Amino acid sequence: METWVSYAFAWLATVSLILIASRLRRSKFNRPPGPKPWPIIGNLNLIGELPHRSLHALSQKYGPLMQVQFGSFPVVVGSSVEMAKTILKTHDVIFSGRPKTAAGKYTTYNYSDITWSPYGPYWRQARKMCLMELFSAKRLESYEYIRVEELQALLKTLHKSSGRPINLKDHLTDVSLNVISRMVLGKKYTAKSSDHHEKEIVTPEEFKEMIDELFLLNGVLDIGDSIPWVAFLDLQGYIKRMKVLSKKFDRFMEHVLDEHESRRTTEDKKWEPKDMVDVLLQLASDPNLEVKLERHGVKAFSQVIQATLSNLLHGFKWRLPDGERKEELDMEEIFGLSTPKKHPLVAIAEPRLPAHVYPK
């Protein structure tokens, strides 16, 4: 009996010392203000469906620099121009690390793209590749004909729809994906192939769904990222969806790479890179790279399809459908990588420029 009491006393004393040491260690740091965290969940109870708005609301109470607790992890939030400049410019190297998330693991080949890869030689090389090879001024100028062709096709479609309600989001999504798909992959996958003998690896609908799912899953707040010991439960079902999407993209990207390698072999010495996948495959074969670019790295980089074409709307003026007033518009947002509208905005396009400007 005395032995049991001695063990219990020793265990309690050890735990007490650990807690005291931990508290003393924390007190040495000048931590930013913030809400008091709950056990296990931290401050996740304060984060709603739109995390950016929840954090903004908290910043109004605790200031432009605050600390919140996401499950097991402390998170410092900067909410002003000055704080953003301090974090992203003045101390950029200190804050250059990236968290290990399920999205990075399952949708980017285990953190192999520039978005989720940790700061280090691989990331620095990837950044250099983007600046010097993939997105250099000369390279982007060589794709100008693609942008012109797709914008002309969009304007022609919108002009034909003049005076009628249209789903503008679909048109803008199509032209964005067409431009980026042709620049990155060499052809567009949002339209049926004109070659009836060519077997489609994915249908246009499947391709769009894959892109939408990629954006959504990279913007969700997965509870397993904040509380790692419950990640295996996949309480929200996101990890299962990420694994399914990963298999779809891998099958698709293998097909794309095989096509490009086949063309390179066929053309031999006459071969020249015409899109970003060609450039990446060329870099992957370069023995002088500091960090070898593996095949999964090529697929991860190629998979990052994202663009904003903000100048598409300048050729038209927009009005609401008859009988609808602007006061009745519902501009509520839903959370995602780009915070889309909860209810689509319906607008009618009318030509603003002279008729001869629009393609027939």
TrEMBL record:
The keyword Flavoprotein does not apply. One of its GO terms (molecular function) is iron ion binding. Gene3D superfamilies: Cytochrome P450. The keyword Ion transport does not apply. Pfam families: p450. Its cofactor is heme. InterPro entries: Cyt_P450, Cyt_P450_E_grp-I, Cyt_P450_sf. GO terms for biological process: secondary metabolite biosynthetic process. Keywords: Heme, Iron, Membrane, Metal-binding, Monooxygenase, Oxidoreductase, Transmembrane, Transmembrane helix. The chain crosses the membrane at residues 6-24. Belongs to the cytochrome P450 family. PANTHER family: CYTOCHROME P450 98A9 (PTHR47944), OS09G0441700 PROTEIN (PTHR47944:SF4). This is CYTOCHROME P450 98A9.
